[in-house]
Design goal:
mainly beta, Pectate Lyase C-like, Immunoglobulin-like, 1 helix
């Protein structure tokens, strides 16, 4: 399933608002208008600057050089802005203590090659990575798409890892890391030894995964995910499907580790759906709590000191995906996984009970109670003119049916600058004037949101 089937996360990644500090006198470095390539712009940048990259293909290998800057392509369509590593070195490097204020967003990262981290290497750094496609990279040892070691808590959001390869950790390899994945696809990655999709080795305190698809990866012995000695793993709304090898595997020797799984699907994997093991004679322990999950064959393979608590809501039924052979793991209307998630967990965006798996079944337009509003399934942010603009511009949008709307302006670090409209709108065409007299010159994003859908557009204020 293509990445556009996730809810698009608003511009420049509004979900990370609290991560960023105040932007003061920051410059915008335009590529290729002002600088021929991305690395040249980075070289001339300072902390808090934005390197704004126009659509196109850039054959280069970039290093943030310890700078907490924003390097921004097109968050709404990363396929338009490609950084190609040329097949001789990794594509992107963070290895000089970059913090979460360093942001890479809106790119396709491809054709990188290195011993570790063919696509991206994060060593002793904790940059923010969002709205990326990381594909067709290779590593001689670990982390074909991404290699991560050291640093603070690490967050990946709205990223596709596909067709990467390595000896182990074909998609992602992390060493002793705390890591969180939101709205991530890990598919068709390969490893000759170890986990094809995602591997965390050497401990760590926490791995959390929400709305994650892990599909069609291959490895020996683990196709999907392997965690070694991670103290806590939290999985909700996960689909681990059609991997060659075990779907989900955990091991430990000396640590007591705990895993919680809910609202998820394990189906079609060629090895055990879930495999947990502690070598005999070791003092570690694994505790698994699993509920409201579609688990093929009820398949949990355990070895050594492992305790499994199976809760309510378990299924062993074909989830009835739309077209798994073509990689579409959305649910069909007849899926037993619809409205089968934990009733105490947050509702799906269509305001129905949680479904199982990475993708909810959209029941919008179905009126279940008298007076309940129908929400639009499509809408348009049709025009912003003039753009660039001096002090004012007009934003036009259309709605195919009455709906709740939020229209706001955000800066390049994802902070809301101003709210233009928030409330209920009738069907039809609407326009709003943006007065930017009190806003500094620079790049901004207009975000139109309704019914869990978001459209973003770039605007530039020139004074």
């Amino acid at each position: 399933m293509e990445r556009t089937n996730f809810r698009i996360i608003i511009g420049v990644l509004i979900i990370s608002l609290a991560l960023f500090s105040t932007l003061t006198l920051a410059a915008i470095m335009n590529v290729p208008d002002d600088y021929e390539d991305i690395q040249e712009a980075i070289d001339w940048s300072r902390d808090s600057d934005t390197v704004l990259v126009q659509p196109g293909e850039y054959v280069e290998n970039i290093n943030f050089d310890g700078k907490d800057i924003v390097v921004l392509g097109n968050p709404a369509d990363p396929s338009e802005v490609i950084i190609d590593g040329g097949g001789e070195d990794r594509v992107v490097t963070f290895d000089q203590g970059e913090s979460s204020e360093a942001l890479l967003s809106g790119f396709t990262i491809r054709n990188g090659s290195a011993d570790r981290g063919g696509g991206i290497l994060c060593s002793g750094s904790s940059p923010t990575l969002q709205n990326l496609i990381i594909r067709e990279n290779e590593a001689g040892s670990r982390g074909g798409g991404l290699y991560r070691a050291g640093g603070d808590n690490f967050v990946l959001r709205d990223i596709v890892f596909e067709d990467n390869s390595a000896m182990t950790g074909g998609g992602i390899y992390a060493v002793g890391a705390d890591i969180e994945l939101f709205d991530v696809i890990i598919r068709r990655n390969t490893a000759s030894q170890g986990a094809g999709g995602f591997e965390v080795y050497g401990g760590g305190d926490r791995v959390a995964m929400t709305n994650v698809l892990i599909a069609g990866n291959s490895g020996d012995p683990v196709g999907g995910v392997y965690l070694d000695s991670v103290l806590e793993a939290l999985l909700t709304r996960i689909s681990i499907v059609d991997n060659v090898g075990e779907g989900w595997s955990q091991g430990t020797r000396s640590r007591d580790i705990r895993t919680n799984i809910s609202n998820s699907i394990f189906w079609g994997n060629q090895g055990n759906p879930i495999s947990l093991g502690v070598p005999h004679g070791e003092r570690g322990q694994i505790t698994l709590n699993i509920s409201y999950t579609d688990l093929q064959w009820g398949g949990i393979d355990i070895f050594g000191n492992v305790h499994v608590d199976i809760g309510d809501g378990m299924l062993d039924e074909n989830p009835l995906f739309v077209d798994p052979e073509e990689g579409d793991y959305h649910l069909t209307a007849d899926s037993p996984c619809i409205d089968a998630g934990d009733p105490d967990s947050p509702e799906d965006p269509d305001e129905t009970r949680a479904d199982m798996g990475a993708f909810y079944y959209n029941q919008e337009g179905v009126i279940t109670e008298p007076g309940q509003k129908k929400f639009p399934s499509e809408f348009r942010l049709s025009n912003i003119y003039p753009n660039p603009f001096n002090s004012t511009t007009t934003i036009k949008y259309s709605l195919p049916m009455p709906s709740d709307v939020s229209l706001a302006v955000y800066d390049p670090l994802g902070r809301r600058v101003t709210t233009l409209f928030e409330g209920y709108r009738q069907t039809g065409f609407h326009s709003v004037n943006l007065n930017a007299c009190d806003m500094p010159s620079g790049l901004y994003f207009v975000g139109l949101e309704t019914s869990g859908q978001i459209i973003i557009r770039k605007v530039t204020s020139l004074k």
